[in-house]
Design brief:
Elements: E1 2-3, E2 11-12, E3 20-21, E4 27-32, E5 43-51, E6 62-67, E7 76-77, H1 82-89, E8 93-97, H2 113-116, H3 121-143, E9 148-154, H4 156-167, E10 174-178, H5 190-199, H6 205-221, H7 226-230, H8 238-254, H9 258-271, H10 275-287, H11 298-301, H12 311-322, H13 341-352, H14 360-367, H15 369-373, E11 379-384, E12 402-407, H16 427-453
Parallel strand pairs: 1-2, 6-8, 6-9, 9-10, 10-11, 11-12
Antiparallel strand pairs: 3-7, 4-5, 5-8
Helix pairs in contact: 6-9, 8-9, 8-10, 9-10, 12-13
């Protein structure tokens, strides 16, 4: 969703709202509440949308499942997006499916901890498998066509896309995993090291980030909390504040806005002497670059009534299973030095008023990249060279049947391949997308051969 999120969130794919179409009315799918309790036949209404119906070639039966991640669906893919570019190329029907517990796809009446036990990547994958099987049957009955499905997702949903091909190869012909965070990492210090490398592509920028962080540290050590109000949320505690504050810098670099961030910091430090003004400007910048206080603040995360937000649900997912804990880098950390594992234990415990912490061994024993690469095929992993999340993904393919592409140009960020397709796109981005399109064509041709020739 993650938003193509920061730890806070791997999540949103296309950054600016003007590159997305308005949201039409959703259709509703009767989804199973708990796929792993076979005595439980309860269902709930999951939202989905269909796109490119007018361009769908029923004789070919190509279908793209675009997987939404950890946020409400607020817009669909525009005609200029890469997903629609692929759909038009292969005359494919596009389904967009909202993830359980986000937006209006709610399996329970509230977000009490007991109900959140139904929120996991395993349940999310099973949702998608059940959806595909039902739609396969529906299209076969209605149009007498054997459909061929490709999944596409970015960030957390990029991991879901790869895992769908790995876990349900009989349903999914292939998967595009854009910035797909398939490795659950407890002590994710590499994240900060990449932020440092990326920031240093703009002269003086990393040093300016550290100046802003040092000021906040000084305020904390002097027990001054005016900074919370300056940043627009007076009810912060220091523990939730630090996650939010670091993510302002992270989200900008992650999503390809390094240049904008670095220019802002330079301007504030060179033209303004008043820290209150500097921090208000930084907070305003964060609000327009996916760093919003309510997604980090304990007071907001503890709320159990259903809303359009994503802070509580996503916090539960990484605190219970996925981790991705952004700890200080080993050399010249830009984060507060005490944001190690003990900090994240406190963050998770304070968020849910009790002991909760992820068992990453359980997740990785099923889904980590090396295990997956050696036992699957037809997955294409992409990463932006400036994206800190690349170190939780597959940067270099080792399996003979999977591909990986590192896209390097100024501002190559999280899920960069899934945005608008423009004539003036960087050549590296064009090359990556051409390789993706070619790979998807091969996958669809493989399945077509199996269907028409029986093997």
């Amino acid at each position: 969703g993650l938003f193509c999120l920061s730890l806070g969130k791997p999540g949103m794919i296309v950054k600016s709202s003007d590159s997305l179409s308005d949201l039409p009315a959703a259709q509703l799918f009767d989804q199973m509440k708990n796929h792993f309790d076979h005595s439980n036949s309860e269902t709930w209404k999951q939202r989905f949308w269909i796109e490119n119906e007018s361009g769908y070639n029923k004789d070919k039966g190509n279908v793209i499942l675009y997987i939404e991640g950890e946020s409400a669906v607020t817009h669909l893919q525009s005609d200029k997006s890469f997903v629609m570019h692929v759909a038009k190329k292969y005359e494919a029907l596009v389904y967009v499916v909202e993830h359980r517990f986000y937006g209006e796809s709610q399996p329970a009446e509230n977000w009490e901890l007991e109900n959140l036990s139904l929120l996991s990547h395993d349940q999310g994958l099973a949702d998608l498998a059940y959806f595909i099987q039902k739609k396969m049957d529906e299209l076969k009955k209605r149009e007498n066509v054997d459909t061929k499905w490709v999944t596409i997702g970015g960030s957390y949903s990029g991991a879901l896309s790869a895992w769908m091909r790995y876990k349900y190869p009989h349903l999914v012909a292939g998967a595009l995993s854009s910035s797909g965070v398939v490795n659950a990492i407890l002590d994710f210090y590499e994240f900060g090291e990449q932020i440092q490398r990326s920031a240093k592509r703009s002269e003086g920028c990393f040093e300016n980030i550290r100046t802003f962080v040092k000021y906040a540290v000084d305020q904390m050590e002097s027990d001054k909390t005016d900074i919370f109000e300056w940043m627009g949320y007076a009810d912060f505690e220091w523990d939730d504040f630090w996650f939010y504050y670091a993510d302002i810098f992270v989200e900008a670099i992650q999503y390809g806005s390094r240049k904008d961030l670095c220019e802002l910091l330079h301007k504030q430090l060179s033209e303004t002497q008043v820290w209150e003004e500097r921090l208000k400007a930084l907070a305003e910048f964060g609000n327009t670059h996916s760093a919003v206080p309510k997604n980090y603040a304990f007071k907001e995360i503890r709320k159990t009534e259903i809303s359009q937000g994503m802070g509580r649900q996503w916090t539960y997912q990484y605190c219970s299973a996925l981790a991705y804990f952004n700890t200080p880098s080993r050399y010249l950390p830009f984060r507060w030095k005490n944001m190690g594992i003990e900090y994240w234990k406190r963050y998770c415990q304070k968020s849910f008023n009790g002991a909760i912490f992820p068992n990453t061994f359980h997740t990785n024993s099923q889904y980590a990249d090396l295990r997956m690469q050696n036992h699957t095929s037809n997955i294409f992993f992409t990463n932006g060279a400036e994206d800190p999340w690349q170190w939780a993904t597959v940067r270099f393919a080792v399996g003979k049947n999977v591909e990986s592409y590192l896209i390097d140009y100024p501002g190559a960020g999280h899920c960069c391949d899934l945005g608008y397709v423009n004539d003036d796109d960087p050549e590296e981005l064009k090359k990556a997308r051409a390789a993706i399109v070619e790979a998807i064509g091969k996958w669809l041709a493989q399945i077509f051969k199996l269907i028409t020739q029986g093997g």
